[in-house]
Write a sequence for this structure.
């Protein structure tokens, strides 16, 4: 199933996961585990698309939920993996009952591609939902690991969910982690799901779903009904990422990651940020109604934010 698509000129790069046997143009992919990762390139030939190459993971392990970014001939991909997963000649081995986040670089040679390096980001049960490339830097955002915190009152273990923003540097032979900033929940019901990531200068923009309370460092966001989204700006420092502002979008009617939730970001050169989002009745942004006449059911909105120059 395709999960990510990136366009660069007439080249289209797609990443996803699959089971069984899949044929992509002249290449046949055969899954060796329950779900395998694939990355493929198509060329827009005008009246049709043509597959140039396809690369897949192997091994008994599962590789799913990829994120994809392209910079020149460098194609970067992340995936959530379990057990043992091999891409190229490198294996990522996960401890028992634990998942890992794989990050890899492929080099596009036109009609073929080679795997340059593969690494384990080292996050237990984490996954990068979004990935962007800027020069030799990579920025990833997604779910961090679940962890256990003992409450002082009764010592009862509480599972908490956190999300992260990370920066990596492509050194040529590998990826070096520059910083990783994690934002933790405070209650079992707190959950921030990052769905989209964009970059402009030293600023990063994130959008996604919010359940319960959201910890954005100096900014706290509180869910006020069944459907809550956020769009936020974080500025990059030498030590990590710090949020400058967070906007809250709310509506009646319930959406979920598994069903009809949508939060996609796009940046324009005019200094405007666009958010495509699915909301239910009585939709608001920053407490203000999006429409003078509320909709009855769910609708897709395009919201514009003007950014300071």
């Amino acid at each position: 199933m395709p999960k990510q698509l990136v366009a660069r000129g007439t080249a289209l790069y797609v990443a996803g996961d699959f089971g069984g046997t899949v044929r992509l143009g002249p290449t046949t992919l055969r899954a060796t585990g329950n779900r395998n990762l694939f990355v493929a390139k198509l060329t827009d030939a005008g009246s049709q698309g043509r597959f140039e190459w396809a690369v897949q993971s192997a091994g008994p392990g599962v590789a799913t939920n990829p994120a994809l970014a392209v910079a020149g001939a460098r194609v970067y991909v992340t995936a959530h993996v379990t057990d043992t997963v091999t891409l190229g000649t490198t294996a990522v081995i996960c401890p028992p009952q634990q998942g890992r986040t794989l990050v890899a670089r492929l080099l596009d040679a036109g009609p073929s591609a080679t795997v340059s390096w593969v690494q384990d980001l080292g996050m237990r049960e984490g996954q990068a939902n979004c990935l962007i490339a800027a020069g030799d830097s990579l920025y990833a955002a997604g779910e961090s690991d679940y962890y256990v915190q003992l409450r002082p009152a009764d010592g009862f273990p509480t599972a908490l969910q956190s999300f992260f923003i990370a920066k990596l540097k492509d050194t040529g032979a590998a990826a070096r982690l520059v910083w990783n900033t994690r934002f933790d929940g405070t209650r079992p019901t707190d959950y921030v799901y990052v769905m989209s990531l964009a970059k402009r200068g030293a600023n990063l923009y994130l959008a996604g779903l919010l359940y319960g309370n959201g910890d954005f460092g100096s900014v706290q966001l509180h869910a006020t009904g069944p459907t809550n989204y956020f769009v936020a700006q974080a500025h990059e420092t030498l030590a990590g990422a710090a949020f400058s502002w967070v906007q809250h979008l709310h509506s009646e009617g319930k959406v979920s990651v598994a069903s009809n939730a949508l939060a996609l970001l796009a940046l324009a050169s005019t200094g405007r940020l666009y958010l495509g989002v699915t909301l239910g009745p009585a939709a608001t942004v920053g407490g203000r109604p999006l429409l003078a006449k509320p909709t009855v059911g769910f609708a897709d909105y395009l919201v514009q934010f003007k950014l300071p120059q």
